[in-house]
Amino acid sequence: MLTFDHKFYKENSLIVARALLGHYLCHETEEGLIAGVIVETEAYLAENDPACHASRGITKRNAVMFGPPGKAYVYFIYGKYFCFNVVTGNEGSGEAVLVRAVEPVFGQDLMSKNRFMDCEVLQLANGPGKLCSAFAINRSFNGHDLTSKPLFIAKNSNEHHRIKIKSTKRIGLSSHCEKKYRFIVSGSQYLSRRETGD
DNA sequence: GTTAAGATCTGCT
DNA sequence: GCAGATCTTAACG
């Protein structure tokens, strides 16, 4: 499995968000490999984006976003869930890509175990909180370099050229969510929301 | 020290 | 389709 180099993550979040679709998110846990194809992402921009955690300057939580690109930004939300992001852009810019859903391809049994509940394969990792739970991603991976094990993103050299990418509005934001900064693999059955006709 | 809101998920109607 | 759970984070005093 080949990972992306740091130069790849240095592009701005809009570019990286699209570029990550169709590639693999992998976690080599002690119990075995967990892997899935990234099918849904959202870009959070350094400039003019009030919804971005970094928009109000550096804090203890978002510090990793201002560090070098290619690292994981993991934060806790709603008292229960984690969200997994990839830091992008130049160091100091404060931007990231939220990975919202993956299509399970390996270690579905482990994902199911990590979710602590019975659910269809279709719903194992079709949302930011679900994905982190299934992949056993927690606070300890905040700041982890995604070009190295045990948690990494690997290139898919086969299918990538076949996917069709669509952009839509971002999910779950109370304000300033009009821009189409959410990117999905069109036709995928593993999205967090059903694909609409817009 | 206190408070309000949050890049969500689940279960119930 | 909608409300509740649940607790960290950040802003404010």
Our measurement of the CA-to-CA distance between the termini, rounded to an integer number of angstroms, reads 36 Å
Roughly what percent helix? 10-25%
The H-and-E topology, N to C, reads as HHEEEEEHHEEE
Counted beta strands: 8
Oligomer: single chain
Number of helices: 4
Mean pLDDT: 95
Low-confidence stretches: none
Broad structural category = alpha+beta
Main sheet makeup: 8 strands, antiparallel
Over the alpha carbons, how many angstroms does the gyration radius reach?
15 Å
Q: What gross morphology would you assign?
A: globular
Strand content: 25-35%
How are the SSEs ordered, and which strands pair?
Blueprint: H1 6-9, H2 13-20, E1 24-29, E2 32-44, E3 72-77, E4 81-88, E5 95-106, H3 108-115, H4 128-134, E6 151-154, E7 165-168, E8 182-185
Antiparallel strand pairs: 1-2, 1-6, 2-5, 2-8, 3-4, 4-5, 7-8
This protein binds a DNA duplex (13 and 13 nucleotides) through residues 42, 44, 51-53, 56, 59-61, 75-81, 83, 85, 98, 100, 117, 127-130, 170-174, 177, 192.
